[in-house]
Amino acid sequence: MEGYATSITKELLQTSFVRKTRSELSCPKCNRQQLIIRDKIVKCPDEEACGWKQFRIVCGITLSMPDIKDLVEKGSTKLIKGMKSKPGKSLMLLLY
Length: 96
Fold this sequence. Notes:
Layout: H1 2-14, E1 21-26, E2 34-37, E3 41-43, E4 53-55, E5 57-58, E6 61-62, H2 65-74, E7 80-84, E8 90-93
Antiparallel strand pairs: 1-2, 2-3, 3-4, 5-6, 7-8
């Protein structure tokens, strides 16, 4: 069982089902690297020196690419509707 689990794990780690997408957006913290955009996170590839990251799901809403671009370039987003707090109350937020 242990050998089988090890072989399956190695095989899964070698597959490239998670795509890293580099954008034209520069890291807002270090301004040296292009951001990596994934399904759940946007981050700077220089994790040791910079470590900037932004989760894409905020209050139950997945941030769109235009929202991420505004947040990185302008420092805030337009008003985002449909967000919910932990107790389930509706929110409309500007992200900074």
